[in-house]
């Protein structure tokens, strides 16, 4: 798999012209989006990671082979920034999701330990109103036992209300990567059949 960073944009108007199908990555600020990107794409240097939430303040575009582009959007629910900056993040997310013709779907990352927190409830309500396919990824699974994972998966199925089962993910487990791509392919097949 060949991956590369393409560009960053602070505003929708700054985004480069789309040449491939795009998938947005959406989630709370501390959900582990950058770690997920680096692990699942097998490139530790691709996305910048930080122990402090709120570091992704731009839309960061990553190309995967010649097949698609992932767009990592700013995390939501992070309070320790100015009101103007929060407004810019929200506008960038909304503009990208609602106006980008190349967008084929959203990877919605949720911390498996905390299903149904306020920020995710707000996101769920917004996602239910937009006509964009959503694929849920449950991060930080290594923090739970297998029994707890199963219990949280069942809660997530109800909460996320997505067409296919969420993918359980841990950046400490190679099996997570393999399972993600299997689930992603199943999701794409489902979308293709739905559009026929």
Question: Can you describe what's shown?
Answer:
By secondary structure, the protein is of the alpha/beta class. The chain has one domain (3-194): P-loop containing nucleotide triphosphate hydrolases (Rossmann fold), CATH 3.40.50. Helices cover 37% and strands 21% of the residues. It is built from five helices and seven strands. It has helices spanning 33-40, 83-99, 118-129, 146-160, 174-194, and strands spanning 3-9, 22-27, 59-64, 68-72, 103-111, 134-139, 167-168. It has a seven-stranded mixed beta sheet, with helices on both faces. Helix 3 (118-129) links the parallel strand 5 (103-111) and strand 6 (134-139). It is globular. The model has no long low-confidence stretch (mean pLDDT 91).
Q: Tell me the name of the CATH homologous superfamily.
A: P-loop containing nucleotide triphosphate hydrolases
**Which stretches of 5+ consecutive residues score pLDDT under 50?**
none
List the helices and strands in order. EEHEEHEHEHEH
Strand order of the largest sheet: 1-3-4-2-5-6-7
- Largest beta-sheet characterization: 7 strands, mixed
Number of domain modules: 1
Whole-Å distance between the termini?
A: 29 Å
CATH architecture: 3-Layer(aba) Sandwich
CATH class label: Alpha Beta
DSSP helix count?
Answer: 5
Short description:
The protein is α/β, with parallel strands linked by helices. It is 37% helix and 21% strand. It has a 7-stranded mixed sheet with strand order 1-3-4-2-5-6-7, with helices on both faces.
């Amino acid at each position: 798999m060949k991956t590369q960073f393409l560009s960053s944009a602070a505003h929708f108007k700054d985004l480069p012209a789309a040449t491939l199908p795009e998938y947005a990555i959406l989630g709370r600020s501390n959900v582990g989006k950058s770690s997920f990107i680096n692990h699942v794409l097998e490139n530790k240097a691709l996305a910048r990671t930080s122990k402090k939430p709120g570091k992704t303040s731009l839309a960061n575009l990553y190309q995967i082979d010649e097949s698609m582009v992932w767009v990592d959007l700013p995390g939501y629910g992070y309070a320790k920034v100015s009101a103007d900056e929060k407004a810019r993040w929200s506008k960038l997310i909304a503009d990208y999701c609602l106006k980008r013709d190349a967008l084929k779907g959203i990877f919605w990352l949720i911390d498996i330990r905390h299903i149904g927190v306020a920020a995710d409830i707000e996101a769920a309500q917004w996602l239910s109103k937009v006509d964009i396919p959503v694929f849920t990824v449950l991060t930080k699974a290594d923090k739970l036992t297998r029994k707890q994972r199963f219990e949280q998966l069942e809660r997530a199925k109800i909460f996320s209300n997505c067409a296919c089962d969420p993918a359980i993910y841990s950046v400490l487990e190679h099996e997570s990567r393999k399972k993600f791509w299997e689930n992603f392919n199943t999701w794409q097949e489902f979308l293709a059949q739905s559009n026929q």
